[in-house]
Amino acid sequence: ISAFATRLAKMVTKSDLTDPMSGFFAITRSAFDNSVRDLSGQGYKILLDICASSKSPLRIQEVAYQFRTRQAGESKLDALVTWEYLMLLADKLVGHVVPARFISFSLIGGLGVFVHMVVLSALLATGLADFIAAQGLATVAAMVFNFFVNNTLTYRDRRLRGAKEVIFGLFTFMLVCSVGAFANVGIANYLFANSHYRWWSAGLAGILLGAVWNYAATSIFTWRVRKRPSVAAKGSTV
């Protein structure tokens, strides 16, 4: 883990953990009970979650050890794990105000704006489409990008798999985001025309409303929580 990520973890946990990503540790029952109700469950780095969730500072004693060179297998520290780690830190810092999942959704939405502009400029520069067609294609490209990245990162625990789930999920995502786009434009236009808002404040208000709608609606219709079958349902009837 990078030194920067470790410093971030120390800021959140207010402790001197050398390796907050460690999965090899022991903890007293009282220390665990002191934090268990506030665990976020974001990612799988439980040590960092416990230290950041504890109501009182934990006394930590570290025993140093040195890893040998890996002989087999691969490190689990990939881009997805790094993202989960950052979202866990975000949840502990501002999760009581803004859900970490919403932060992830919004950041990916910002990347979608970049994708939109790249596709739009490419289509116009090459003369493959007029502005209206290029704008429409760029919007679709951004929605598709946002869907697949959110499916991989933001909703990794509810990830849609298989062609049927992915196609239906993409359809509901684009439908919901289309409603959000209309709401964005409508609210921004109303505030600018009737409430004497400046153009930038009206625009930001529309963006915020659209983002909240897209996040809430896609959580319900696209990445809804799946009910686990009950024990009774799994058993056979006599």
Spans of at least 5 consecutive residues with low confidence: none
Q: Helix count, per DSSP?
A: 9
From the N-terminal CA to the C-terminal CA, the straight-line distance is 54 Å
Strand-residue fraction? Answer: under 5%
Please state the CA-atom Rg, rounded to the nearest Å. Answer: 23 Å
Element pattern in H and E: HHHHHHHHH
What is the 3D form?
Answer: elongated
> What is the SS-derived class?
mainly alpha
Query: How much helicity do the residues have?
Result: 55-70%
**Average residue-wise pLDDT:** 81
* Domain unit count: 2
Number of strand elements: 0
Largest sheet: none
What is the strand and helix layout of this fold?
Elements: H1 3-13, H2 29-33, H3 46-53, H4 79-94, H5 100-126, H6 131-152, H7 162-194, H8 199-221, H9 231-234
Brief rundown of the structure:
The chain has helices at residues 3-13, 29-33, 46-53, 79-94, 100-126, 131-152, 162-194, 199-221, 231-234.
